[in-house]
Amino acid sequence: MDKLDAIFAPESVAVIGASTKKGKVGHDIFANILFGGYKGTLYPVNPKAKSILSVKCYTSIANIPDPIDLAMIILPPKLALQAVEDCIARGIKGVVIVSAGFKEVGGEGLIIEQKIHQMCQQANIRIVGPNCLGVINPSAEVSLNASFSNRMPESGNISFISQSGALCTAVLDFAADKGFGFSKFISIGNKADVDELDLLRYYHKDPDTDVVMIYMEELARDPEQFIREVREITSGANPTHVLAIKSGTSDAGALAAASHTGSLAGPDAIYDAILAQAGIIRCQTVNELFDYAQVFASKKALRGDKIAIVTNAGGPGIIATDMSENSGLKLAQFTDETIRELHRYLPPTANFHNPVDVIGDAARDRYENTLATVISDPGVDGVLLILTPQSMTDAVGTAEAIVNIARNSVKPIICCFMGIVDVSDGVKLLQKNHLPVYHFPESAARAMGALYQGTKWLSRRTLPQYDIQYDSKKAEEIINSCLEKEQYILGELDGSRILQCYGFNTLKMELATSRDEAADLAETIGFPVVMKIVSSQILHKSEANGVKVGLETAEEAREAFTEIMADAAAYDPAAELDGVLVQQMAPSGTEVILGVSKAPMFGHAVMFGLGGVFVEIYKDVVFSLAPLGRNVARRMIKRIKGYPILTGFRGQPPADIEMLEKHLVSLRAMVTHHPVIKELDINPLFVHAEGEGTTVADVIITLEDKS
Amino acid sequence: MDKLDAIFAPESVAVIGASTKKGKVGHDIFANILFGGYKGTLYPVNPKAKSILSVKCYTSIANIPDPIDLAMIILPPKLALQAVEDCIARGIKGVVIVSAGFKEVGGEGLIIEQKIHQMCQQANIRIVGPNCLGVINPSAEVSLNASFSNRMPESGNISFISQSGALCTAVLDFAADKGFGFSKFISIGNKADVDELDLLRYYHKDPDTDVVMIYMEELARDPEQFIREVREITSGANPTHVLAIKSGTSDAGALAAASHTGSLAGPDAIYDAILAQAGIIRCQTVNELFDYAQVFASKKALRGDKIAIVTNAGGPGIIATDMSENSGLKLAQFTDETIRELHRYLPPTANFHNPVDVIGDAARDRYENTLATVISDPGVDGVLLILTPQSMTDAVGTAEAIVNIARNSVKPIICCFMGIVDVSDGVKLLQKNHLPVYHFPESAARAMGALYQGTKWLSRRTLPQYDIQYDSKKAEEIINSCLEKEQYILGELDGSRILQCYGFNTLKMELATSRDEAADLAETIGFPVVMKIVSSQILHKSEANGVKVGLETAEEAREAFTEIMADAAAYDPAAELDGVLVQQMAPSGTEVILGVSKAPMFGHAVMFGLGGVFVEIYKDVVFSLAPLGRNVARRMIKRIKGYPILTGFRGQPPADIEMLEKHLVSLRAMVTHHPVIKELDINPLFVHAEGEGTTVADVIITLEDKS
Lengths: 707, 707
Known about the structure:
GO molecular function (chains A, B): acetate-CoA ligase (ADP-forming) activity; ATP binding; metal ion binding
Keywords (chains A, B): ATP-binding, Ligase, Nucleotide-binding
CATH superfamily of the domain at 296-458 in chain A: Succinyl-CoA synthetase domains
Shape of chain A: flat
Oligomer: homodimer
Distance between the termini of chain A: 49 Å
Radius of gyration of chain A: 31 Å
InterPro entries (chains A, B): Acyl-CoA_Synth/Transferase, ATP-grasp, CoA-bd, Ligase_CoA_dom, Succ_CoA_lig_flav_dom
Domain ATP-grasp (chains A, B): 496-549
Family (chains A, B): In the N-terminal section; belongs to the acetate CoA ligase alpha subunit family.
Number of helices of chain A: 24
């Protein structure tokens, strides 16, 4: 038996801090359990009351004569601490602390919360909260509404996790309005113990839960563990589909970042990475969350991107077509047989091609025949059916027909019954049979798109990992020698040497400290050369006119040295100028940026994107946290919008994408071996044609100053 | 008196084709008018019935003894035609034809529709439909529900225009569910006569309409007239705010377009241009349409982008903050005085900075004092207030306080009362007082963003037009000489000559037909030169290896000629090769693309975007139709995402944006003078630093083959 069973399906519940006063949380939660028809036994605890709502009250949990599974605690922090001690002594299995005033207010509240957590950990008891709305399990066998919302939702196969209690009330109201059913519903508040991952594990094993909706404020645990576990939960033959709204303030980005990567690695980008890697579909609004949950709850997969649309009205058919295409779907091309078949059932004024218009006066039969025909077409992966109430419309009959056809097909059918009142009986029939149904065609089409996204995740390819050798010992030596010199910002010379240890191809380069040395080095390296200022203070060299390319002669190298030093001094008179780097000219290629940034909460995030303005203005970059192997790397590269630039654009040969994948894996290995690396930008990296590798054209590495 | 008054506020209505059979449209519309409490006089017309729903029935409209304002016609096309003749003879002022079977089925239906239109035009009568849902006017003085929806919406200051009848029913149900009120509601079907522009003119004059929602399928009239008139309607001191959902199939783009511009000028991009130029806010979903309508209906403007958020729960406050920032808003920084003031009213655990958290146990007073304080802060342009139902929450009291404060402030207050049931009395109070209120914080924040967008449109700058001289006569000569030669695709030589007439700076260039000529021309033009293949069949020269840049010597020019001709022949053996263009090397600059495409329905659309992959992969382009003067041009340039690249990026000098504006205006003039131009691509145009102009690096112009 899972310990969370004591929370979700307790045989007995004690409400500690139950109150006789209506409107008080301690009263309302007790009343909600009592009047919610809880199937177990309920005990109020309050030293001052004889009974509450006619139920005998106990002065302390110690005095209850029977075994108790779950304690709901509604008491201020100090009393709550005492109550938890009593609960442990009493052998209680689970605790939900509803009250606020703990970690979120700091000080003593935080200390008490930590103490409670320790005590319960030792006693092997799980805690939900503090500072939460409570727990709801609407299933007929339990019927527990241990929350301060007086609405018990209907029973269904979707479970909900909310960090915010406030949102819960609104979501319950919204769900009631939509006739939406839940399997389990929980608010986790401060997450002193039970958090999203615990619940996802539990829900994944729960036969009554197929879809989980999360409202997440922040992830307070190791993201790598979260990603590793959740991606198993969302994958495989029996996946749990997870949808999340994640809110995170946009201004919390690392303002003082020395690298592009660092400045782009805001919490929003990082959570995007976590959710994508875990296979969680991110939603922007509560409407989207509900719309998508419905379609995943129907337990069908959209095996391909070709859909058929069946409608009895032109306008909504057009909207559905548009939104489908915007959601990554395509309209299927029917076979001749399908079209011949449709001619048998539909009047000549109908549209026999996709989107099929069965015409306004369609009754049940026309819908039934059309749906049965198009869903059998081998080129159709799913059907979007639109019904608008018109004079001959038979919403209930059509719904019955849809339910019958859906029962015998593996392909998903998503319905849009427009209008709320006229079609409500049909809608209810569809809902009862777990057929997703929406009020507007754009919602239906968007949900279909989300379903396709989900199916793609489930059927993603997994290739064997690359076997790459690294010289981490040498890299360690370089890093240590920099740290000894208290040099925390590493320029191209040291950066390139470290990258070489991880399989990157770098350019020949030497530091010149005089005009003549620059000319000599250029001769040795071979013309043409590039020359760049070297100064710890000048991070963006081109802004300081500190880069000159295509220098062809010794004389040009000499002059370039003088100009670069002069311009750098003018740009930042306080900068310490080490000299000018003389570098082999990079062979041309597509400019990309690779980077790493370390966030305090999340560890290292690896970034990939196209270089130049693509990163700076279009912000067309993507992040991944650990684990980052070959498959994650491949999906990262494909996720940027500019991906076609790499696959052979305008007669250009395809770029060496495999080498890029290896580099991303290697960068991950590098920061795992050398966690002192705080930020890294390889900008640009030139990617050459397939099989021809890449060249690092510039690199900057920042180390953590732990002194 | 406006002729549409007979449609929206008739003193008497005849229902021609009224029926005694429940479920028939002719019965239901009659019943809906009758039971909807219509304030005028209602006459059923049916040759076979004595009375319908107890109301005396007439065999023909000719027999009704009293004057009739409006005829609702529910009859098949041939009988409808006869009925319209009778109506005209009877002196009726307006006609609504509900029945289908006209233009949309083609053939005889189309012919009858055209005949009806002609007859009514001659008789000076307006027609709505055919193929429409009807007309609704919920105002107490009229109370007309001449539709086949049995729901009469509440009265409000928002009017609705729908092309689709099907959507109307759904929208009415949705509105009823949201407690949403309408001023006028109309479905226009085939638009034989009355269309969106007619109704926008009427609604603009209507004192009861402040906001118009449109569901548009296609615009069947001159877009220039539409833009000119609607931008006046949406502007000025007494604007009508217009919101629209526009659906248009994505695959209808010009597939065979010879230019980038042509291939990007799909209907979606064109409608984006029309709506943006007309000042119409485009919505993607019906939810958005309703959310935005509510905020504009409140008749307040958001003068700046700084908002304050007041909440009693952390989570929703974070969501609101995020979505506000995503919607182009910023969180205001409070003055010290505001923060001091807040300390007087809020408990120490509150958050005194934006977003202000008044803490879960806030009752009315805390909300009232906080709202009054932050709205008085000079740095705050508007307030988003979030209330989540908690134990001390006083939804109605807080709503009262908000209403009082809103009454005395010019700044908008947008509310989010979370939960549907618990807070419903507060929500109703807010709605009654025209305060926009939403269920979820992201909807509220998005609506605030839309309001800001609307206010920006109202306060847009209008600068005097540029005075540019053109040599349209010379351009005409060049075009005519090409047409005479049956040359419809003009390459760089002719294209550049035409562009010169319109003030573009082009490069020195000559056509070489032999190796030696190429070398000679290069000497004359001056090294380095660019060489390009010239062939009407090869439009994308670089794909054919047909461009060589930076040629420095006569020998290089000679070799380049041979290679270019050989590669072109290999690329397309059927291509006719005119020779190789030898061209002055363009001075460097930012690559942009300017283009024109002529669409059959819309006329010429002028495009602007960044060149290269920005246009091809990121599709970061924007279109405008006529009228296109200096101000539209300026807003076009600012609308692309890559705009910062032009304003001085990474130490680059700002580009000559004024010259770009002039070019856009000039291109518009060019295609107005020479409508035979079908497509035009200037790709790339190099934009130099401010004041230094631009250089055309390549151009292709396609003329219409009218033979």
